[in-house]
């Protein structure tokens, strides 16, 4: 009888240990779905889990070849409403994810330790941005410039009608900031780190874009503050020149 109890006790212990092991190794489908549904990343292609290691794998359309590239991508991402790198902290991932692996469209990888999010290991197989990727960036840049000009024109009409829209002003400010973020990114591009043959020709026009955008912004801000629509009309030639540059970029 005593030996039977001992065997039963050992059997139950084994079941308990096995149960603990299984619960720590894997992640439930419910938790996985909850985490995935709360990831917000514009360039996301696919998300999956490596269950045995509790690894979250995120494939993205963006390309990265440096930690700075990855930082920019993370800055525009969120999980459970937390933004940036902190969003991938283990506590914010329901304490279920040990590592997060980002795979870029050019095959490079970045692995992040969720217990120490500053510990990021890059695996760089391709050290140049592809021509298609740079062209797509330039196309989006062109669209943002055209949107900026459009908001400026609509603000002029709003001021004429004495019906200024705060939402429109927010979007106008946002596109202005986007243009400057693009300019900062393009500053890092060169023949040595891109396959885009016309990168230096394109970059030679960046100073003109910055000068035009800043001049239009200064005048438009003044028009908003003083409620004088006629001030914006004084930027007519600059808006046209900026629009021409944007359309040139879209065909590069």
SSE blueprint:
Blueprint: H1 2-25, H2 29-37, E1 39-40, E2 44-50, E3 55-60, H3 67-75, E4 78-79, E5 82-83, E6 99-103, E7 109-113, E8 116-123, H4 131-160, H5 166-187, H6 199-203, H7 206-226, H8 230-233, H9 236-250
Parallel strand pairs: 3-6
Antiparallel strand pairs: 1-4, 2-3, 4-5, 6-7, 7-8
Rg (CA only)? 26 Å
Q: Please tally the helical runs, counting DSSP H or I stretches of 4 or more residues.
A: 9
Helix content: 55-70%
Low-pLDDT segments: 1-24
Described by strand count, sense and barrel closure, the largest sheet is: 5 strands, mixed
- Strand proportion, as a percent range, falls in 5-15%
Query: Oligomeric form of this entry?
Result: single chain
What structural class do the secondary elements suggest?
Answer: alpha+beta
How would you sum up the global shape?
A: globular
Mean pLDDT over the full residue set: 88
Tally of DSSP β-strands: 8
> Could you give the order of the helices and strands?
HHEEEHEEEEEHHHHHH
Strand order of the largest sheet: 2-3-6-7-8
Distance between the termini: 86 Å
């Amino acid at each position: 009888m005593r030996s039977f109890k001992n065997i039963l006790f050992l059997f139950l212990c084994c079941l308990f240990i096995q149960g603990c092991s299984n619960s720590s190794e894997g992640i439930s489908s419910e938790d996985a779905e909850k985490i995935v549904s709360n990831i917000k990343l514009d360039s996301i292609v696919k998300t999956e889990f490596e269950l045995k290691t509790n690894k979250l794998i995120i494939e993205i359309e963006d390309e990265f070849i440096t930690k700075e590239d990855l930082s920019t991508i993370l800055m525009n991402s969120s999980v459970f409403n937390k933004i940036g790198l902190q969003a991938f902290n283990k506590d914010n991932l329901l304490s279920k994810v040990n590592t997060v692996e980002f795979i870029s469209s050019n095959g490079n990888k970045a692995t992040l330790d969720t217990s120490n999010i500053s510990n990021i290991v890059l695996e760089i197989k391709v050290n140049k941005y592809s021509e298609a990727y740079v062209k797509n960036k330039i196309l989006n840049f062109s669209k943002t410039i055209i949107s900026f000009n459009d908001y400026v024109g609509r603000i002029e009409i709003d001021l004429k009608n004495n019906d200024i829209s705060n939402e429109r002003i927010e979007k106008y400010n946002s596109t202005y900031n986007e243009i400057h973020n693009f300019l900062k990114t393009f500053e890092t591009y060169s023949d040595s780190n891109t396959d885009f043959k016309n990168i230096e020709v394109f970059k030679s026009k960046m100073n003109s874009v910055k000068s035009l955008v800043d001049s239009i912004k200064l005048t438009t801000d003044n028009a908003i503050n003083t409620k004088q629509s006629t001030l914006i009309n004084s930027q007519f030639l600059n808006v046209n020149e900026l629009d021409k540059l944007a359309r040139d970029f879209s065909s590069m």
